[in-house]
Specification:
It is a single chain. With 697 residues, this protein is α/β, with parallel strands linked by helices. It has 28 helices and twelve strands. The protein has helices at residues 6-33, 38-48, 61-65, 71-92, 102-127, 141-153, 157-167, 173-201, 205-230, 232-240, 245-265, 269-278, 286-314, 322-350, 355-364, 369-381, 387-402, 404-411, 414-428, 445-457, 486-501, 504-508, 524-535, 582-598, 611-626, 636-640, 672-676, 679-689; strands at 133-134, 137-138, 435-440, 465-474, 513-521, 539-543, 557-562, 574-578, 602-606, 631-634, 646-650, 664-669. The strands form two sheets. The protein has a ten-stranded mixed sheet, with helices on both faces. Helix 2 runs parallel beside helix 13 (286-314). It starts with 5 loop residues before the first helix and ends in an 8-residue tail after the last helix.
């Protein structure tokens, strides 16, 4: 191809930018339409404009649209976009996210970096013989191993934050912890990358030490010398009431000079931009930060970053991988996804984070996005990554980012997220998240009082806790032709409410707040479900045989009680049949509630039949014993001879009550909330709450 004149190069640059912007907007919109971050579509657009798609068509269209003479100018624009992006990353990195969570977030982040880094370095032992040369220059095992390790360890904080914001997860405990972990991960990963770049660029140990030392001096000067001066920007912004050109000029000049300094030190210009963003004022600077982000993101996101995606895409040739590249790509994906997930999940579980939250963190920390491409481009510029390995790692970045949203919906379903958001909103408003037991009582006052006692037992140590005493009165079967019949009906309802109010002292004497409700009903189970939703009941307690057969499904946990012989509430044991099913897990939790209220030991019968379920039950018993509960594992014969006061069984386990006809039997059918909780999470909460409200004798 003939050499282009400066005027022709300028014309091509304008054309290329227009094409790039069109492709980025179209692909970004398509990505959002399928619930993906826009950056996924923009990365795909960059790859599509390169040899992977456009270059695979007849006529070498990628070379025609992006001639070799034009690419250096596009590269400069891409670098400017990267510098602004890294400044934004540093600006949005708020250490306040970590404050109060330093130990947990730090440990999880460290685990989520160390394991994938080690696995990535180990993978290099396999890949290095196949990628030990770039443009005729040898690549050392150490340099390649360090770069692959960092590539496996990174998390894209901006993309993660956007995913959390789109789903509203930033208001949930899992989302807040994930943000803190990602912020810590960002600090750790960029520090590690700076060291890796120093090692890759340093020709000798002395040069590496020199680069690291100069970087440390530069960072200290920025944080101790420049950061206090930047506080004046807040005053200038407040006095003007807007982001003036002078204030923006100061910021941009600082970003560019800082980037130049780190480039001359020998790491990379992006580190200077990141550090300058990190030292920007935070206190009282919310309006300034927002104005800067709005101004720079328009230029960076719309114009410059799409150019960077194309520069990366021009070096990516997915079609050229071949069979040898496919198995290597499989190993890369296995190490990247498995290492990051297992590292974050194991670190979270080791600190007692519930399984679901740990899974959410593991999935989110796998988000790599644009941040991964930044690292890969640095490796490519330094001559550490060849074209084939660069392509594999770009595909890995795309896959790990695209899989986050669907996997997140799998481990954190919308119904669970909705409940967590509502709980967070109630907590923010100061509304207590009360544990409610809706108890349906009979007309016989003595039986009703005993049912209320059972309802109080089911509150365990939950606080605040409440009991709602309910009676559904049969609706009149016929309508009168003359007269309304309203007065007798109202009298019957008033009488039912008065009878229920006389039972309230039974609950209040146990230290449980109690309210009453009653209504006419022609469809008892449907009306009961409606009432349970109104009071947001955690457990619905009904007497055995109430209004016909138990329904197959109910959104709330349903406990059916068969009252046994009256007892003096002495510390006779509570027997429970537990297994790995939702009903079995909930039965164990409610049995512990009863034991707390009765100050009684718990005898656990393994109803799983051994195997994995049996190991879960025995593990749960051990967990409870360590938490201070008087609980032990027994067989059915021992349970039958235990003179139990209360037996708790999952729905369908009729054999558990054989020989125990004098005990009160609670049959448990788990609702959706309890079904969504795993055993460790449910018992972990119980262990923490055990001493909140002492048992009432």
């Amino acid at each position: 191809m003939e050499e282009l004149s400066p005027a022709e190069i300028a014309a091509f640059v304008l054309l290329d930018i227009a094409v790039i912007m069109i492709a980025a907007r179209l692909f970004g919109r398509a990505a959002r339409a399928i619930r993906q971050p826009a950056v996924v579509g923009e990365i795909v657009a960059g790859i599509a404009l390169g040899p992977s798609l456009l270059g695979a068509l007849p006529g070498e269209l990628d070379e025609t649209l992006f001639p070799p003479d034009v690419r250096p100018y596009l590269y400069i624009l891409a670098q400017l976009g990267l510098i602004l992006f890294m400044f934004i990353v540093g600006l949005e990195l708020d250490v306040a996210l970590i404050r109060g969570r330093e130990r947990v977030a730090g440990a999880i982040s460290l685990s989520s970096v160390v394991l994938p880094f080690a696995l990535g370095f180990g993978l290099t032992l396999i890949l290095h013989p196949l990628h030990d040369e770039v443009d005729g220059q040898p690549v050392s095992l150490l340099a390649l191993g360090l770069f692959v390790g960092v590539a496996m360890s990174i998390t894209a904080f901006p993309v993660l934050a956007r995913i959390l914001g789109d789903r509203g997860m930033h208001r949930t405990p899992a989302g807040v912890l994930a943000l803190a972990c990602a912020a810590f991960d960002d600090i750790l990963a960029w520090t590690l990358l700076a060291f890796v770049v120093a090692v890759a660029k340093g020709g000798s140990p002395f040069e590496v030490v020199q680069i690291v030392g100069l970087t440390a001096v530069f960072a200290a000067a920025m944080f101790l010398g420049v950061k206090p001066l930047l506080r004046r920007l807040v005053k200038w912004h407040e006095s003007a009431g807007r982001l003036t050109p002078d204030v923006l000029a100061v910021v941009l000049i600082g970003v560019l000079l800082s980037s130049y300094a780190t480039d001359k030190i020998g790491i990379h210009s992006i580190f200077g931009a990141f550090i300058f963003g990190a030292i920007m004022p935070r206190e009282g600077a919310a309006a300034l930060t927002r104005d800067i982000l709005e101004r720079l993101e328009q230029v960076s996101v719309l114009l410059l970053l799409p150019v960077f995606f194309v520069i990366a895409g021009l070096g990516t040739n997915v079609g050229g991988l071949g069979f040898g590249g496919i198995w290597q790509l499989g190993l890369v994906l296995l190490v990247a996804i498995g290492g990051k997930f297992v590292g974050a999940f194991a670190g979270a579980r080791a600190l007692g984070v519930p399984t679901r939250q740990a899974s959410v963190i593991g999935v989110l920390m796998n988000t790599r996005g644009l941040t991964e491409l930044v690292i890969l481009q640095i490796g490519r510029d330094l001559g550490v990554l060849d074209g084939e390995l660069f392509t594999m790692l770009v595909v890995m970045a795309l896959v790990t980012t695209a899989m986050t949203e669907p996997l997140l919906r799998l481990v954190y379903p919308d119904r669970v997220l909705k409940r967590d958001i509502e709980a967070a909103e109630r907590a923010a408003l100061g509304i207590p998240d009360s544990y409610q037991v809706l108890t349906v009582v009979e007309e016989d006052p003595a039986v009703a009082a005993r049912l209320i006692e059972v309802g109080c037992d089911l509150t365990g140590s939950e606080t605040p806790a409440g009991l709602v005493v309910d009676r559904l009165v049969a609706a009149p079967r016929t309508r009168l032709e003359l007269g309304s019949g309203l007065l007798p009906d109202l009298a019957a309802m008033a009488g039912a409410v008065d009878e229920l109010k006389q039972l309230v002292p039974v609950a209040t004497a146990r230290g449980v707040a109690c309210t009453v409700m009653s209504r006419f009903s022609s469809a008892p189970w449907e009306d009961l479900a409606s009432q349970a939703d109104v009071v947001d009941a955690d457990v619905v307690l009904v007497p055995e045989g109430w209004s016909g057969p138990m329904p197959a499904t109910l959104s709330r946990t349903l406990v059916t009680v068969r009252l046994g012989a009256p007892d003096d509430r002495s510390a006779r044991p509570v027997v429970v049949t537990a297994d790995g099913s939702p009903d079995g897990r909930t039965a164990l939790r409610l049995a512990l509630h009863v034991s707390i209220q009765r100050s009684a030991p718990v005898l656990v019968v393994d109803g799983s039949g051994g195997g994995r379920g049996g190991r879960r039950v025995s593990g749960a018993v051990e967990q409870l014993r360590k938490a201070g509960f008087d609980v032990r594992l027994v067989n059915r014969v021992e349970a039958a001879a235990a003179d139990a006061a209360v037996i708790v069984v999952p729905r369908g386990d009729a054999t558990a009550v054989a020989g125990l006809s004098f005990a009160t039997v609670l049959t448990v059918q788990a609702g959706q909330v309890d079904a969504d909780q795993d055993l460790t999470e449910a018992l972990g909460k119980l262990s923490l709450e055990r001493n909140v409200r002492p048992p009432v004798a």
